[in-house]
Queue: 2 jobs
Job 1
Amino acid sequence: MTFLVWYLIISNIYTYFYYHIWKEESLNPDNFSIDRTRRRFITLLLSIGFSNLSFAYLFRLPYVSDFKWSQDIPLNIKSLWFSYANSITADYEYVKPITETGINLTITQLIISFVFLTIILGKSLPQTTSTE
């Protein structure tokens, strides 16, 4: 199951990147209608949410021993909040990575979130052009 979740995370990044950034017609400003912009923004939010849910699963089940849980009780809600907090570099004191694997996992999520929130968001929203 862990392999499947990693595969889904990677395919989520690849699919969003390919269809919203790489393809030439996706960067054509003539194609930016208001409805298309809204759909792109919604799919961006869905991709980020899916990524965070996938990492919450990884924190909670296969890599649970790589984290220190408050009161030594790993809970689904703690892993979910930790995943969302980690994706925006916020501190979540109830879950902390304690092994190198845990640290690498949190850094991987942070890098993926950075890619979604900066590079892809910058390309997903239409740029305004001055007509002066």
Note: Strands lie at 67-69, 95-97.
Job 2
Amino acid sequence: MDGELITAIAAVAVSVVGTGYAARQAQIAKSAARSAEAQVKAAEEQVALMLRQVEGEEVGRHEARGPEFTTESGHTDISDANVPRGVLVLRQASGPALSTVTVTATGEGVEGMRGRRNDASHWGYDRETNIDIGPMASGGTETVHVDLDFDTRKTKIVLHLTCRAQDGTGTWQRSVAAEIEPRPRPRASRV
């Protein structure tokens, strides 16, 4: 064989080996790129999970800072037989001072909230879907009147409250329930 042929065959062999090596390096690079992409995606998912956890913890802290309510007493006022009313004393048991507390009532036989006095109204006052009882603070109480259906005497009333902090740091949704019925009539004393 002559020297040029051997050199050409050797050059082709080196070229084939080089091409194979380059192809293998490209596969390794593609695999490394896919692995890096998977790691980036996993890191992004981890960051998103951590952000959701932090947000959830913040929501929990916000809710824990909010007001708590109870009903101190409640009864059905049947002095007007056509429009019995639930009379509930709402108490802010704890929490920040509030600039406003909006109250809505639900329950079997609940017709609406007793609003402002209005002599032109059929009932003598405005019947509202909700009322704003104004500011409250821990320990404060407010009497709330809930209109009932004409034949409702005993029922469970749920008061739904939307509260706004006086310092503007938050808004909270709360609910408190009370079973109401007419007060027992006093027994006549025997002489």
Note: The beta strands are 68-77, 85-94, 98-106, 110-117, 125-128, 130-132, 141-148, 155-165, 171-180.
